[in-house]
Structures are given as C-alpha cells and as structure tokens.
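Forgive a beginner's question, but would it be possible to get any protein sequence you like and the tokens describing how it folds?
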Amino acid sequence: MAHENLDVIVEDIVKPENLVYRRPSTLIDVDMHYCPGCGHSTVHKIFMEVVEEMGIQHDIIGVAPVGCSVFAYSYMDVDMHQAPHGRACAVATGIKRVLPDKYVFTYQGDGDLAAIGTNESLHAANRGENILTIFINNAVYGMTSGQMAPTTIEGMITTTSPYGRDVKSMGYPLKFAELIAPLPGVAYVTRQSVHTVPNVRKTKKALQRALEYQRLKLGFCLVEIVTNCPSNWKMNPVESNKFVQNTLLQFYPLGDIKVPEVRV
C-alpha cells in the first residue's frame, strides 16, 4: 500500500508544471567530463535547448577546434566537424558557403579564437560570413594547464604569469567583441555569462537571437560568454563564480555591444 502511494506521489511530481530540469533531446545522454563548476556544460545544455526549441537539430552544423571546446561533439547531438587549432571560422565559412541553408556555428575558447585563430576570426567577421561564433572566455588556456591568454586581465595569475599579468611587458588584455563590433559585416555582438541563474537565461536568449539573425542572413554573430575555469584558477566552483562577478566582469562588462535593427 505504501509503495502504491509513493508511485502516486512520484507521478504527481513529474507533471510538466512541476518540471525543474530536463535533458534536451539534442544533448547526448552521457556523463560530461568537464571539471566541477566549469561553465562549458551549462552552455552546452542551454544551446542544445535552443536547437531543440527551434526544431533545427537536423539543420545545424557545428565546428569545434582544439581546446576544451573540442569535446563539444561528444555531447551535442548535432552534426559536428573538428577544425585545426584556431581555424574554426575558416572551416565554418566553407561549410556555410557550400550549405547556405544550414545553420552553422563555431564553439571556441579564448586562446583559440583570440590568439591562434585571431586572423580567421577577424576576417570571417569582416567578410560578414553568416555564421554564429560562440566564444567561451575564461581568460586562460584551459586545456593546456592555464597559461596566460590574450584575454587574461591585468594582474591575473596564470602558469605563465605567476606574478600576475604585467601590461608593460606582456601587453594589454584583448577585448575581441569590441574589436569586431564596428565592422560592417558584423550583425550581432553580445557578451553574457552563466555564473548565475538570471545570467544563464540571458545567455540562452542571446544564443536564440543569434540563430534567428543567421536565419535572416544578417551576417556574422558573436556571443561571448565569460565563464570560469576553477581548476586552472586554483579555486573551487563557488570562489571561481565570485571571481567572475567581482573581477572579470569589471573588465568584460555584460550586455549587447551591437544589435541589428531587425526585431526577432
């Protein structure tokens, strides 16, 4: 009798109006390997929710280069193509031109997009390639032990700047989003984060808008997502989220940088 009552309770809890979390059908049902607290898994989930909700699972192609982003195809149940380090935008350009009716996106880290791949990224934006670039900015090279990246902020400690980034000898951090926003081929540039629930919702909306702008053939779209890297920052997840809020976002303020006049 008690078992039957439990079944009734469980059945009531799982009603749609009580649903808190559900894995989107576009996300492969496997355990993710990312470090605890890493923002990659959150971005994967919300982006695949957008793909599911837009009904474009079989009409979208992703490009992931080298770095932590390379594992995206292990989790996203959509067509994926791997690119050499830094060359994702070049590969995505080829795919989009051959298959112009497909949605095409790149999924790149800051070391990949804004250092090794600066040339490809910048020129794809300047040409107005009708693709979406998802730019994960955690201010370090994540996969290869946390070296200083172009996005590492002044004074930030990394494995190659153990006393903090010194702009006199190491140069200034690069704000790639602001760099490309004035280009005429660029349609949409926004900087978001996933370190709080409200920010996760804003980021999901930004990803949806970017795909809608691509559908309208408006040009290059960049969604930068400022996130954490607990392992390489030598912090626990809670500390790393506080670092995002209190330090990184002071240099990388959130919000839209360039928005087309078209409403979606």
Summary: Residues 100 and 130 are 9 Å apart (CA to CA). DSSP finds ten helices and seven strands in the chain. The mean pLDDT is 93. The first strand starts at residue 60 and ends at 64.
